[in-house]
Every structure is written in C-alpha cells, then in structure tokens.
Amino acid sequence: MKIRSPIVSVLGHVDHGKTTLLDYIRGGAMAQNEAGGITQHIGGTEIPMEVIETICGDLLKKLDIRETMPGLFFIDTPGHEAFTTLRKRGGALADLAILIVDIKEGFKPQTYEALNILKTFKTPFVVAATKIDKIYGWETHEGLSFIQTYKKQANNVQEKLDNGIYELVGILHDEGFESERFDRVENFAKQICIIPISAKTGEGISELLTMLMGLAQQYLKEQLQLEPDAPAKGTILEVKEEKGLGVTVDAVIYDGILRKNDTIVLTSRDNVITTKIRSLLKPRPLEEMRDSKKRFLKVDEVVAAAGIKIVAPKIENVISGSPLRVARGDFEGVKEEIMNEIESIKIDTDEMGVIVKADTLGSLEALVSMLKAMDVPIRAADIGDVSRRDVVDASIVKNANPEYGVIIAFNIKILPSASEEIKTTGVKLFSADVIYQLTEDYAEWTAAAAERKKKEWIDAIIRPAKIRIIPKLVFRFSKPAIAGIEVLGGTVKKDYILIRDTGERVGKVESMQDKGDNKPSTSKGQQVAMAIKDAVYGKNFEEGDVLYVDIPESHYKILETELKSKLSEDELQILEELVKIKRKEDNLWGLRVEY
C-alpha cells in the first residue's frame, strides 16, 4: 500500500526561528523577507525525499531509515494558531510536530502554550533546541551534523550546551514528559528527542530531519497508508478572495485523492454544503502556498499529503478549520460523516460560565481546553465575531457572578452593536490573537478581582478599637452628642457601635471631624470631634470615659480564626479586654461552635 508524506507542524515562541528553520530546509531566502522574522501567513511546503537525502546524507542509512515515504509536508504556523486550526476527527491534522526552543532563552509563555496544545491533541513531537551558534565561544561549521560540530567545540562550550539541554529536560519533566538529547535516548516511544540545531548555519538539521523520518517510519506507518483512488479528506486552512479567481479555499489534504470536477462536502456557518471543484491550484515544488509572488499551477488531481487551493462556487461562508470530504455517489453518507465530525467538537457548556468566541473550530477547541484546565466554566463557545447577543448573554451571567460574566475572544472582530452593548452593560471583554495572552489576562483579572473581594471582606469585619472622651470637650449633650475624643488603639469608623466597659451600649458613630474636615475613620493617637447618635451626655457617657467598639460575635470568630495575624499588638490587647467585657454577661460569648 502507498505511503503519504507525514504532515509536520512547527510550533514555538516568536523569534525562536520557526521560519528560519523551514527556510534553511528549503534552501530559499523567505525568512529574510518577513518583518522581524515573524511568520505572518499560513502555508505548507512539501520537502521531497531527494532533498532530505541530500541534507541527511548517510545518517538515514546508518539508522536504517528506508525510502518508504515520498518526503515531509511542513505546515509553517504563525505562532501555533494554524496548528489548532488544522484539525481532524480525533486530534490534530499534523502527524508530527517540532517544538522550537531557543537554547539560551529556554521556555517562554508561547512555548508552554504550544506544549499544552501538543498535549491536548496528543501529537508526537521532537524538540529543536535552536540557536546553538549563539552560545558564547561556539565555532560554526556550516551544514555539519550536530555530532560532527559538537566534537569540534571546546570543552567549556560543550558544557554550556549540555547545561542548556538539561534545563530543557528539567522543564519537560515538570510538564510530564521524559526527554533526552537525541543521541542519548534509550526508548523513542517513551522519551522526547531534543535535537540541538542552528537554523541559520544548518548545524544539526540533518539529525532533526532524520529523527522525524525515523519516528514516522517507526510509529506512524499505519496512519500514513493511502488507499488507492480513495476519496480525499482534508481540512480548510483559509477562505479568501483571490484576484481573478473570486473566493477560494486553501486546504490541506491528509488522505486520498482530490480531482478537478469532484463534488466536495464542506461546512458553512449555517449548514453542510456541497459544491463542485472548478479548478485545483497547486504551488510549484519547494514553494509556499502563501507566496503571492509565485504563480500557482493548475492541476487535475492531488494526492495526500498536499496543500491545495480550490476554486468552486458557494464557498463564501465555509468555516476555517472545518472538514472537507469528496463525495462520489454517497452524498448523504458523506454529509452525515461531516456532521458527526462537527458534533465531535461540540463543547460541554455550563449554566454559569464565560462566553468564548474564536475564528476557527480548532482554535475554539484549544482555547476551551485551556480554560477548562484552569477550571473555568464555559456558558457558550462558538466561532464568529462577537455580537450584541454574546454581550447580553455575558451580562446575565455578570449579574449573578461577575467573575464569569466576561467574553473571551480569539482572533476575531467585535461588531459595532456589541461594542455599544459593552459600554452599556460594563461586560469585561478579553480580545487577543494569541491564546496564552487571553488565558493569562483572564487569570490575572480574576486574581485581582478575588484580591479586591477579599479586601472588601476584610474591610467589612469590625476590628478592635477604643476611645477616650477628652475632658472639657463635650460640645453637645444629645441628638447627637458631640465630644472631642482620642483614639487609644485600633481604628474607629463611621457607623461603628460604641459600648462602655460594662457592656452597656452608648450609641453609633454618626460622623467625625478634624478641623472642619469630615473623616470616614480615625486611628490610634488621633483626636477628632465625634458625633454619637442616640447617646446622651451624663446618661450614657461622662468626660474621661473609655468606650469600646462593639464587635459582633460572628466577627470575633473570624478575627480569632482567620485574621488574628493581621491584628496589631494594641488591637490584640483591646480584643482581650472586649472579650472580658462580653463574658461578664455571657460566659460562652465567642466560644459557641456553629454547625
């Protein structure tokens, strides 16, 4: 049976060398044409076996890797959003992945996100530890294998590289993966290979390709088998308008054969549609689908794995990341298969939770997976721009639970009507084109909200304090009584209840003033004029009296069990005094256990 090329995805942090790696393998200069070396468009490139043999030389023969595959099909991903877009039933479209990590910088937030996505989709991967040429003292030997160039380095340089590798091994271990430098791996089924490389000089690239070919041959043979003349299966990369062609879809075909005039079944925003292929456009060998400067070639058919541009009617509303199937006779059966695949992505939702919106099915799935790993409940998850209805839905949740009354939007627009509704309702919107930024921002926001809530809760607990009525400074006898007071300890706030050392209620703090300025609170050592509601001078208090802030029994228990460490020495002393006062009337005050 025929074997197709394995589909390989390259993931990692921006500027860690994804494009440069593919550029070296192709032998072109595409990476230099991009601003900052950051990949900006999605594309795919087939690397024929002849090119791989040229780069790898005798390594393939040494490891007994036979020429059973036509080559490798690389998907170049901007960040790793394309990886999540490119999905099929049961996981990611990519058969293998390369996780790029700068050996000097190590793991970055996007690296962790990429690793989590690989976990979610259960994709086999290798780690390319890039930029070894940037290690201080490294002597470059362009195009050599890693083992050859490593032997030529000074001992201290080898040590620096090994330290970098062991740091990666440690991080991967913490994330649940056993790993080792590729030439020290004892069990390829259980350990992740780390291949040190320089995408700039080509050092180590031969081992990287060899490891990919070896893993594919050893573990992916069955899933790479092609049935002769089988109808094509693929995934939609992008829907876009091309000058002179109209609306087209870019797709990656991962199984079977796709022919001009085939009837294909696709998913639109509203339903499942069927349409007939008018033209198939394929890039020339070693050229990217995304390179608009190059002309596409018209072809009559393509065999998996391949990146292809399809011209067909009625495809304007096709969803990126959705499945593509060829129907040869059994239209209803294929439609049902498509519906089943879409159903398999349906996300379990909660009554109370956040609203999640994304641009493609795969990115929606990845974002929801990460939120669920953070124990964030999901009320609704859908593709498409943020609408007014989404905001209304989130505002309903916000009224019941502010923490979840939010919208988390990945790589999409906010419709004008939605923006207006956000202003009216105050719903919190998180919008970004990097998944980890969304999850990080939401986590920070909820942590800050929880901290504010905790502070409000602590502020609502009445803490110990006592005051002294300053002699000869009673300004008004009643309704309300006004007197000069000094705070002997703690902090007194407006609306606190004051009691005498006998436990008798004096009245409520109505207001406090210092030189004509109103004060919401007054602390130890300060003197203010205090208005005490319901208090009568000569009846409830006298000059020189010491009055205590009354603390409810429930607040005392919280102070004693949860906030005691936050009380000052004078507050602790006053609390002891208050307990004695309270227990004169009720010897079980503060001791009762609530069930």
Short description, anyone?
This protein has 595 residues and is an alpha+beta fold.
State the distance separating the first and last CA atoms. Answer: 71 Å
Strand content: 25-35%
- The dominant shape is elongated
Which structural category fits the helices and strands?
alpha+beta
Strand order of the largest sheet: 16-15-21-12-13-20-17-18
Number of helices: 15
Largest sheet: 8 strands, antiparallel
The helical percent reads 25-40%
Number of strands: 33
Unreliable sequence segments: 28-42
Please state the CA-atom Rg, rounded to the nearest Å. 34 Å
For the residues shown, what is the average pLDDT?
86
Family: Belongs to the TRAFAC class translation factor GTPase superfamily. Classic translation factor GTPase family. IF-2 subfamily.
Function: Function in general translation initiation by promoting the binding of the formylmethionine-tRNA to ribosomes. Seems to function along with eIF-2.
Protein name: Probable translation initiation factor IF-2
GO molecular function: GTP binding; GTPase activity; translation initiation factor activity
Give an overview of the whole structure.
The chain is an alpha+beta fold and 595 residues long. The protein is built from 15 helices and 33 strands. Strands 16-15-21-12-13-20-17-18 form an eight-stranded antiparallel beta sheet. Strands 3-4-2-7-8-10-9 form a seven-stranded mixed beta sheet, with helices on both faces. Strands 26-27-32-29-28-33 form a six-stranded antiparallel β-barrel. α12 (416-425) links the parallel β24 (406-410) and β25 (428-432). α11 packs parallel to α12. The longest helix is centred in the C-terminal third of the chain and has 26 residues, at 435-460. It starts with a strand and ends in a 10-residue tail after the last helix. Residues 28-42 have low confidence and may be disordered.
